[in-house]
Design brief:
The complex is a heterodimer of chains A (252) and B (498).
Chain A (H helix, E strand, L loop, with lengths): L1 H5 L2 H22 L30 E6 L2 H19 L4 E6 L19 E5 L2 H12 L4 E8 L4 H14 L2 E7 L11 E7 L15 E9 L5 E7 L4 E3 L11 H5 L1
Parallel strand pairs in A: 1-5, 1-6, 2-3, 2-4, 4-5
Antiparallel strand pairs in A: 6-7, 7-8, 8-9
Helix pairs in contact in A: 4-5
Chain B lengths: L4 E6 L2 H9 L8 E7 L2 E7 L1 H5 L8 H7 L4 E4 L4 H12 L7 E4 L3 E5 L10 H15 L3 E6 L2 H10 L11 H5 L11 H9 L13 H8 L1 H11 L16 E10 L2 H21 L2 E12 L4 E12 L2 H9 L11 E13 L3 H4 L3 H20 L4 E6 L9 E3 L20 E13 L6 E6 L2 E14 L11 E8 L4 E7 L8 E7 L2
Parallel strand pairs in B: 2-4
Antiparallel strand pairs in B: 1-6, 1-7, 2-3, 5-6, 8-11, 9-10, 9-11, 12-13, 14-15, 14-19, 15-16, 16-17, 17-18, 18-19
Helix pairs in contact in B: 6-10, 9-10, 11-12
Classes of the chains: A alpha/beta (252), B alpha+beta (498).
């Protein structure tokens, strides 16, 4: 009793923290969020902090929603950016959709070798079947499905498929009728925003997005302004960057 | 292994077929006739007309004189051959090698087949009963050589199964015509008093050759087995084929699946032994009513993984209609390719992955079709629509690098969509553009990038491409077709940047 009384208060709190962290890990492992070895974690982007273990969950299905063709392009660009980390140099990825909209040569700008992507153009009713079949194949690094409707039951099927194979799935829902609840681990909405050009130079800058993470299982939803600088994501908030014109230029 | 042949003689092939089509003709004497030199000549006679003394080659008018109620049908040229071909294909359930023999016979190579029926007698009995049930009048014989089987089926009167090695004895009492020789040679032999084969088979070959020519000797050699007679099978034998005959007709899906699994195991084992993999496999089901149901699968890469191939077939087994039942399953691999053994592949993880990927694509291709699956490689063209090409196979690697130096949109519209623009100065990016009734104010712009039409491929206007960003922060790829000289040039939206 006497010994216990000697433990300072902050130590107790620390011990509690430790226990909570350990329990949290156990919960994650039960929910099949793997604790990734730090050495092999890629730092994909600032939005990773929102996810459990501070890492983007692979072996899970992520949902993206877009309503306008412009934002659909932004969303596919964002997905391509994440994909480039997942497939690396030798992996393969499968894109399933009712019609191919992605321009293969442009994928190179997002660090993907376009020959490593296999495009499937199938009828609307076969998209989910093809996505599920592809998600079951361990040889595939990631699967992207572009469709409009995804019911909870269907998303659950996809989630079960990836739990077996640890393939990462991206479901891009373009113009869905309702934004219904799904079993996906996250829900993103990506919008194009003004590109940032330093020093007020003319022209169009790097792809720049407002990435809203609306839902995330066991994480904190958030919102970021991100840009793809050709090699990776970087946070670039135009509200914080006040473009300053150097005095020399002003002078003439 | 001793070879055994079965000769089947259809004595009334055409008329039997007519009777099969119209059962009421069974009791009526009729002939099938064709015009020849202005007369109608009898080409085929049914058994009833035959007993009245009407024979093939008779003039129809003469036949009518003998039998006034004789019915005459026109001959359709080539029907007998078609019938024989169909019958020979039907006979494949008894042996893989069936050949058409002349105008009224079929030869089967039954070597090593009869034991499946429990002996040669049961084999012939089954064959005979089935053909008789169809309504064909047939005579059958089985012997060591084609010539002997033919002779016994046409001219023999004794037991139809000539035991192995006894075929020469069986030939001896038969007339010379049983050797399939020309009729004038047979006639000459008759005139000389050589009325059976026994009387001249021992004669010196030189003497026979001088008097009757080489053909008699050759036919004699074929009949006794001195020379091997070539046989042209009606269906070429696939080198990679597995067969599974069934004792009872199979009707259920489970039964078909078991048969398919069994055959795949056998075929894959053989392919593994020979370091081969199949690219195309055909699963054929021979139905009781003579119909053949077939399903085919293709693989993206040579494969001999029976469980994978089974999965591919599984998606299609529903198409098989067993109807009355299936009595024979055949699995063929028309296209095979060398495939290194899996032992070597185990060292190479990426190869294993590629195999899995190829298997996935096979599964997808079965359902959605091969045309739905695309993979792209760079093509050396500036024109955006032609800057990539479809890869022919999963292994094909890019010949040139992808270009990264010029901005390209992540979404390219399949067809450029026309827009209305407001441009301040010619050759400048637009200030405003209207696409699908939505007005976009251009905030930032890059360009132009001029891409000329490749005149050796297509004639047309060049395009001046601009990357623009509107006041909402959305980025577009616009182009102007042609220049300002003659008329107002048209503007198009061609893609969306990320």
């Amino acid at each position: 009793m006497a010994v216990n009384a000697k433990i300072p208060f902050f130590n107790k709190a620390e011990a509690k923290q430790e226990i909570i962290a350990r329990l949290q890990q156990e919960v994650y492992s039960l929910q099949r969020f793997k604790k990734v070895n730090d050495a092999i974690t890629h730092t994909i982007g600032p939005f990773e902090t929102a996810f459990p273990n501070q890492s983007f969950p692979t072996g899970a299905v992520h949902e993206f929603i877009s309503h306008e063709p412009e934002h659909a392009a932004a969303t596919n660009g964002f997905i391509s950016g994440i994909l480039s980390y997942l497939i690396g140099r030798s992996g393969y990825s499968i894109w399933v959709g009712s019609a191919r909209v992605v321009f293969p040569p442009a994928l190179k700008f997002f660090g993907i070798d376009p020959e490593h992507i296999i495009f499937l153009e199938v009828s609307n009713k076969d998209i989910l079947w093809a996505v599920e079949e592809a998600l079951k194949c361990q040889a595939v690094s990631a699967v992207v499905g572009i469709l409009s409707e995804l019911s909870f039951k269907e998303s659950r099927r996809l989630q079960l498929a990836v739990e077996q194979s640890h393939v990462t799935g991206f479901i891009h829902r373009y113009k869905p009728k309702t934004e219904n609840i799904t079993a996906c681990v996250s829900r993103f909405k990506i919008r194009s925003i003004h590109s940032a050009i330093l020093d007020g130079l003319p022209g169009v800058g790097h792809p720049h997005w407002q990435a809203n993470l609306l839902k995330v299982r066991n994480g904190k939803p958030g919102s970021w302004q991100l840009q793809w600088n050709g090699n990776g994501f970087e946070e670039y908030d135009t509200r914080q960057h006040i473009i300053s014109i150097p005095q020399k230029l002003k002078a003439g | 292994m001793a070879r055994r042949f079965v000769a089947i003689w259809f004595r009334h092939l055409l008329t039997d077929w007519f009777t099969r089509r119209k059962p009421e003709l069974k009791e009526i004497p009729f002939v099938i006739a064709a015009p020849d030199h202005g007369r109608m000549i009898v080409k085929a006679v049914n058994p009833i007309a035959c007993t009245s003394g009407i024979y093939t080659g008779m003039v129809v008018a003469d036949g009518r004189a003998i039998l006034p109620e004789l019915q005459v049908f026109d001959e359709e040229p080539g029907r007998d051959h078609r019938l024989l071909k169909a019958l020979a294909e039907w006979c494949i359930r008894f042996t893989p090698i069936a050949a058409i023999d002349g105008a009224d016979g079929i030869i089967l190579d039954a070597s090593g087949c009869a034991h499946l029926w429990g002996g040669e007698l049961a084999y012939l009995k089954d064959l005979l009963t089935r053909l008789r049930v169809f309504g064909y009048h047939v005579r059958i014989a089985m012997a060591d050589t084609i010539g002997a089987a033919w002779a016994v089926s046409r001219y023999g009167s004794a037991y139809p199964i000539i035991e192995p090695g006894k075929h020469i004895e069986a030939l001896l009492p038969l007339p010379p015509a049983a050797l399939r020789i020309e009729s004038n040679i047979a006639e000459r032999l008759h005139k000389l008093g050589l009325k059976d084969i026994r009387s001249f088979i021992q004669m010196p070959r030189k003497a026979l050759r001088r008097r009757f020519g080489e053909s008699l000797l050759q036919q004699l050699d074929y009949a006794v087995g001195q020379q091997i007679e070539p046989l042209v099978p009606v269906c070429p034998i696939e080198p990679y084929q597995e067969r599974l005959p069934c004792l009872e007709p199979i009707k259920t899906a489970t039964g078909i699946e078991i048969a398919l699994k069994e055959l795949l195991e056998q075929l894959c084992k053989r392919l593994a032994d020979e370091s081969m993999g199949l690219r195309i496999a055909v699963f054929k089901c021979y139905r009781l009513d003579g119909n053949i149901q077939a399903i085919q699968i293709n693989t993206a890469k040579a494969s001999r993984n029976s469980s994978h191939l089974y999965k591919l077939f599984e998606l299609k087994t529903g198409q098989i209609e067993p109807d009355l039942g299936i009595e024979l399953f055949v699995l063929e691999a028309p296209i095979v390719e060398p495939l290194i053994s899996s032992q070597e592949a185990m060292w190479n993880v990426s190869q294993d992955k590629e195999m899995q990927l190829a298997e996935l694509l096979d599964r997808l291709a079965v359902k959605v079709g091969e045309k739905a699956i695309h993979r792209y490689l760079p093509s050396e063209h500036y024109w955006p629509e032609r800057s990539y090409k479809q890869a022919l196979s999963l292994e094909e690697q890019p010949g040139t690098a992808w270009r990264e130096d010029l901005p390209r949109p992540i979404h390219l519209l399949p067809q450029p969509e026309q827009i209305e623009v407001t441009v301040a100065i010619p050759d400048y990016p637009p200030i405003l553009f209207k696409h699908k009734d939505v007005l976009h104010r251009v905030a930032k712009a890059d360009g132009p990038e001029r891409i000329e039409q490749e005149w050796w491929i297509e004639q047309g206007l060049y395009r001046d491409y601009y990357c623009v960003e509107d006041d909402n922060g959305c980025r577009y790829w616009l182009f102007r077709a042609g220049h300002y000289e003659q008329a107002e040039p048209k503007w198009f939206l061609h893609g969306y940047f990320a």
